[in-house]
User: What shape does this take?
Amino acid sequence: MGESAQTDEDTRFRDEFVGRFSEYWQSQGRPRAEGRIVGYLLVADRDAVSAEEIADGARVSRGSVSQSVRRLREMGFVELVASPERRSRLVAMDEDVWGGFLRNERSYLKRQKELAASALERLPGLSPPARNRLRNMHDYMTWLDDYHDTLLSSWEEYKARRD
Assistant: This one.
C-alpha cells in the first residue's frame, strides 16, 4: 500500500474515531462539539495544536473550540501552552489525561461534600429521608475522595506493569 493510501486510511480512521468518541461523550450529557475536540486531541500527532487546527481536525466551529477549551480546561482535560512561533497559545492534552482527570476530580468531590454539609447544618428540620439523602451524599463524597489515593496508586502501578 502506498504512503498516500495509508495516509488516506489513517485520516478516515481518525475521523471515525473522533465521531465515535463524540457519541460516547455526548451520551454522558456533554456537548457533542466538546467530545469531537477531545477525540481529535486524543489522536493528534503533535503535543500541542492551535485552535484553527482543532476546528479543522475536529470539524467544529472556531467558536465551539473557544467555548469547549474553556470548559475542558476547568475539567482538567487540556491546558494552554505558550508557543514561541505564535502570539496565541496552543492547546495541549496530557498523555495521562485520565489519571489527571482522576486527580482533578477531588475538587469536585470536596465542593459536593461541603454543599451537603452546609445543607445538613442549615436545614436542621429536614425530614429523615431528606436528611439521609444528604448524609449519603456527604459520606459518598468523603468515601470516594478517600478512595482516590487507592485508585491513583493502582492506576500508576498498572501503567508501570504495562510499560
